[in-house]
Amino acid sequence: MPRRKPLRFLLTNDDGLDAPGLSALEAALPEGSDAMVIAPSEERSACSHQVTTSRVFRATQVGERKIAVDSVPADCVRVALHDYGGSFDWVLAGINHGANLGADVYYSGTVAAVREAAIFGVPSIALSHYRDRELDDDDWLRATGWVRTLLPALLKRPLGRGEYWNVNLPSLPPGPADPPIVDCEVDTSPLELSYAVDAGEYWYTGVYARRGRQPGRDVDACFAGSISVSLLSLP
């Protein structure tokens, strides 16, 4: 019987190449996987689905299978597909330091990276980790374990053309139990419009943990302590 080829992954993010969440994601890949990391050279959070067409940007090899791009996450995916074509089985983005729930999917560079992959027909998953500022839950080893458990089943689930997954890990106090995994739709509630204004200067003062939440949707599921899994698709 011929040996099965290892799955080949492209990993990226919007927190930058050196972000701990990216290392946590790589550590969560199935055993025997083949991974290439092509990520922004610095943090590009909340950049949405920008792409660069009016300036030169540089991609720099910084390791055997690691490339730093001085641009946004969607450009990282474009570079990967331009240079390596159809050799990736999956594009994974994350693990983002902070949630990408509900309306966040429109602002997020993490989600934009996998949406760009979906445009080109490559299966993809965005993974983010909600952080409750009142909890000391900056535990990437635990996040790796959760994703390692989640990925095998999610990789087997069929995706239609233009579909992609958005996963959010919850913020939980230390404990041995893994959170439940919940399939749910994206919450359509808007983020709070809250600003401090001084002489025409605006500073956002909304509190993420107090955002609106529709029962049973991704914000509600993740805030309640579950791993939310949402199927998204191109228009």
Average pLDDT rating? 94
How is the main sheet built?
Answer: 9 strands, mixed
Helix content: 10-25%
The CATH architecture classification is: 3-Layer(aba) Sandwich
The CATH topology is given as: Stationary-phase Survival Protein Sure Homolog, Chain: A
Order of helices and strands: EHEEEHEHHEHEEEEHE
- Counted by DSSP, the helix tally is 6
Number of domains: 1
* Class per helix and strand makeup: alpha/beta
Number of strands: 11
Q: Biggest sheet: strands side by side, in what order?
A: 3-4-2-1-5-6-7-11-8
The fraction of residues assigned to DSSP E strands is 25-35%
Question: In the CATH hierarchy, what is the superfamily?
Answer: Survival protein SurE-like phosphatase/nucleotidase
